[in-house]
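so i finally got all the pieces together for this one. its two components total, 788 residues if u count the protein bits. some of the lines might not be protein, just check the labels. i wanna see the whole assembly predicted at once instead of chain by chain like last time, that was a mess tbh
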Amino acid sequence: MTTAGGEQSGVDLKRFNEVFFEECAENLAQMEQILISLGDREPDQEEMNAIFRAAHSIKGGAGIFGFEDMTVVTHVMESLLDRLRNHEIAFAPGMIDLFLEAGDAIAMQLAGHRDGKPVQQEAIDRVRARLQQTIDGGTSQASTAPVSQTQTQAPPAGELPTSYRLAFTPEPEIFMRRVRMESIIAELADLAEAGTFRCEARLAEVPDFAGFDPECCITRWEFALVSRANRDQLADVFMFVADEDQLKIEEQPAERRTQAQDAQGEPALPVEGRRAYDRNETAPGAFGRRCGEAESSIRVNVTKVDQLVNQVGELLITQAMLSQVSVGLDPMLHQSLQRGLAQLERNTRDLQASVMSIRLVPISIVFSRFPRLVREIAAKLGKQVELKTAGDSTELDRGLIEKISDPLTHLVRNALDHGLESPEKRVAAGKNPVGTLQLSASQVGGRIVIDVIDDGAGLNRERILAKAAENGIPCSETMSDEEVWQLIFAPGFSTASEITDLSGRGVGMDVVLKNVQAIGGRVQIASEPGKGVRVTISLPLTLAILDGLSVAVGEEKFIVPLNVVIESLQPKAEQLKTVNGREVVQVRGEYLPILKLHSIFNLETCVTEPCRGILVLVEADGERGAVMVDALLDEQQVVVKSIETNYRRVEGSAGATILGDGRVALILDLPELFSMHKQL
Amino acid sequence: MPKKGFVNDVNITLDGDCTMERVTDLHALLAERCAPLTGTPPSAAVVHVDLARVTGIDACGCQLLALFLEQLRRQGIAASAENAEPEIRERVELLGFCALFSGGQPQP
C-alpha cells in the first residue's frame, strides 16, 4: 500500500521527502566541510557542536520520515561525537577519516532512497562497527583518564533543569505525509529528565465517524517535561513538522534559577546537559531554522524554474515578433502601441534577467568537494598539497554547475597525480615540498572562466610528441607549444595503463574536452617547465538565453553571439589581401582571416566578395577573424534551443533560435568556425 | 489488513496492525460497528475494544480508535480499548492516548 519512501496515491509524499533529502545532503556537506577544514587537529567546541548537530539532524529527520536505516550509522556517530564532546573519549586524528567514511555511508543510503542507487550494506555495517569499536575502545581508555579531566567537564553545580509545557497542533496532512509521530515524541522524551515526561493526546473535534477521513489528523498533543535542553533544542525536535504557529512552548523560568542566583538577581546560566550542543551556535545549517530564524529563502523544484525560464524564453520570442510587426506601422498613428511595445520590451528584459538569476548558483558548490578529494588523493600518493580556491562566490547557471563538476574533478585528479611532484622531487628541484593546487573562478565578459593551476613540473613537450607519434596522432617537431599541449586532448592519446609512463598528463583529457564543449565551453592549456600547468575552462554564463547580433546571408539568418563581436566594417579593396591562398582583411595593421558563411554553410547569395558585404570582426578563445555577411539586421536576445534535440548537430553552430518572424536561425559557434575555416 | 472477530455486540477484537497504512480498512470496519451501536436507543451500554491481537499501532491508528470510542461515549456508551500487549501499550502511552482509550478524559 505505502512504503516509507512514499510511493502513495492521495498525497505526493516525494515532495515532502525531498525536503528531508535536501536537508540531509546539506547537513552531510556541512559536516564534511568542517571535517576537512580540521586537517588532523581536534575540533574545537563550536566545530564539534556543528558536526554533532548535522549528524543529529540527519538522524532525527530520517526517523521522522521513516528512513530507519539511515538512523543506524548516525546514531553511533552521534554517540561517539557526544563522548568526544564530553571528553569521555580522547580525540585521535583517525577519527576524522572515520567520520568522513560515516558521512559517505549515510550519503550512500541517501542516494539509495532518493535516486534508487544501490546501497552496499556491508560498507554501512563496516563503518558502523568501526564507530562502535572506537566508542568501546575509547570509553575504556577514557575511564582510566585522570579524574581531574573528567571533573572539569561536569556541569556547574547549582544548575537546575527547566520545566516546559509544549502544545503541538499538527497540520491535518501530517499522517498523509507519513510523519512518524512516535519518533518525534520519543525524541522529545529523550530530552526529558528521567520520569518527568508526560504526553497527552486530545481530539480537537469529534466529527461523525462514518464520514470522517481517517487520514486527516484532528489530534492535538500536549507535553510536559523537565529538561536541561533549552527552548530551541525542544523546538528542533519538531523542525520538520511544525511551523512557528503550530508549536507553543512555555517554560517556568523560576525553576531555571538557583536560590542563590535569585537572591543575587543574576541571570540564569545557560543550561548544559547531554544535548546542550547548540548553545551559542552560529554555524550555518543549524537547527531551529523554522522556529528561530526568519525564512529568507524558499526551496523550489528545479523543473519549475526551468519551466519558468522556458516560458520567459517564449515570451521573449513573442515580444520580438510584436516588435517586428510594429516596425511597419506608422509611428504617428500607432504612437501609444509603440510606446507600450517599448515598455513591454523593457519589462521582458527585466523579467528575463530576474528569472535567469534564479538559476545562478555559486561555484563554491563544486569547489567545496575538492578539499576532501585533494586530501585523500594526496594521502594516497604520499604528496603534500595545499589547495587554494578563489572566486568561490562566482555564480553560474545551475545546469552548468552540474555538468562542469566531473571535468573539474578529472583535472584536479590529473594535477595531483601527474602534475605535482613528490615532496622529495620538489625539494630536489628547489621547491617548497608542499605543492599548490589552485582553483579559481571569475566572470570575464559574458563567460565564466575557471582555472585549475598547479605548481608542478609542467607538461613535457618531448614526451607528449613521442607519445602522440606512438599513438598515430599527427604531429611534428615544428608545432608550437600550444599546439603540442592540444595533442593531449586527442582521443586515445593516453590510456590508464600508460599513466605512470608519462610525466605529463592526458588521461581522459579528451573526455574533459568533450564534456566542456558539450556545454558550450572551451579548454585551454598553458604550461611552463618546472613551474606548473594552468588549465583554463571558459563557459557561457547561461545555456538558455544570449545576446546576439542577427545577420543575413542570402535568404538565411544567423545569430552571432554579441560577446564575441568586436566591430563591423565594410572593407575597402586595399584592405583585402590573400595570404597563403586565404583571403584576409587588414585592420589596423592586423591581418584577420575572412570566414565566408555562404561558403561554410553552402548557401546561395549574390554577395560573394568581401568588398560587397559586411565583415563582422569577432574574437573567440583568443583567436580573431572576420565573418562575412550580406547584412546586419538587429541586435536581440535570443532563446537558445538545442538543434541536436530537434534536428541534428550542425557543425559551426552552437544551437538555434526562433526569430520574431517565426524562422529558425543558427547561432554561430565561432571557435568551431575558425577551425572549419582552417580545414577548407 | 486488520481482521476483526465480533465476539458479541459489545466486544470488538481487532487483529493485525492499526497503522496509517491500514487505517482506511480499519475505519471501514469500525464504521460498520458504529452505526448499529449508536442507534436510538443505543444497542449496548458497554463496548470493549480488545487490542490483545493488535501487532502494531501508530498515531493515526490511535486517533481513529480514540474517535470511535469517543463517538460511542457521546451516545452514553461506556467504551474503552484494552488488553494490549506491553509493546503496544507502551506505544499508546508514548503517543498520549491512554486517557482517550480508557475513557478517562472528557473531549470537547
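Residues 4 and 14 of chain B are 5 Å apart (CA to CA).
Chain B has one domain: 3-102.
anyway lmk what u think
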